[in-house]
Amino acid sequence: MKKPNISAGILMYSRKNGLKVFLVHPGGPFFLKKDEGYWGIPKGLPDDNEDMAATARREFEEETGIKAEGELTPLGSVVQKGGKTVHCFAMEAGNDDPFDIQCNTFRMEWPPNSGKFEDFPEVDKGEFFVIETALQKINSAQREFLLSLQKYLKGE
Q1: The CATH classification of domain 6-153, taken from the options 3.30.420.130, 3.40.1010.20, 3.90.79.10, 3.40.630.30
Q2: CA 4 to each of CA 7, 16, 46: distance values in angstroms, whole numbers, following the listed order
Q3: What is the DSSP letter of 38?
Q4: For burial by CB atoms within 10 Å, which of 14, 40, 49, 114 has the most?
Q5: What's the rounded Cα separation, in Å, for the pair 15 and 96?
Q6: CA angle 41, 46, 48 (to 5 degrees)
Q7: Over the stretch 46-70, which tens digit does the pLDDT of each residue have?
């Protein structure tokens, strides 16, 4: 059984061409034309008795198609506007090359009350951003993860 008010994810970063972080944009019809403030880390709900690091690795792979095999560094947790606690781990990538997202889908009635159901990707795109841009794109509650990453990389 999933724990609905807790999630865990990974903030992947690269220092190959200056510091960049990888964020994902939520899929589905409600987010189609929304950009700034809607991107975030690939994350999801833990299964029963699953630790946060294992959840973060599993969800990262489910939402990106990339196996999260690097070392994970805890960056703390935040509580989002809706009350969900998000735990974040940093993981360094070897490069910041673009790649196609391979993610799970979810099924929902669309348009609402139509009786028709469609499948939508959990994530419709992912991209590396320089920190300044990422601070504009990311969900406001998750900005703390970007600041924590910068402090960690400076050795603070």
Answers
A1: 3.90.79.10
A2: 8, 36, 8
A3: T
A4: 40
A5: 8
A6: 175
A7: 999 999 999 999 999 999 999 999 9
* Res 1: pLDDT: 63
Q: What is the CA radius of gyration of the chain?
A: 15
What is the residue-wise DSSP string for 73-140?
Answer: EEEEEEE-TTS-EEEEEEEE-S----------EEEEESSTTSS-EEEEESEEEEEEEEHHHHHHHB-G
76 in the Ramachandran plot: left (φ > 0), alpha (ψ -120 to 50) or beta? left
DSSP 8-state code for residue 29: G
Residue (of 39, 19, 15, 18) closest to 27 by Cα position: 39
Q: Does the reported pTM lie above 0.85?
A: yes
Q: Which residues contact 6 (CB under 8 A, 6 or more apart)?
A: 45, 46, 84, 85, 86, 87
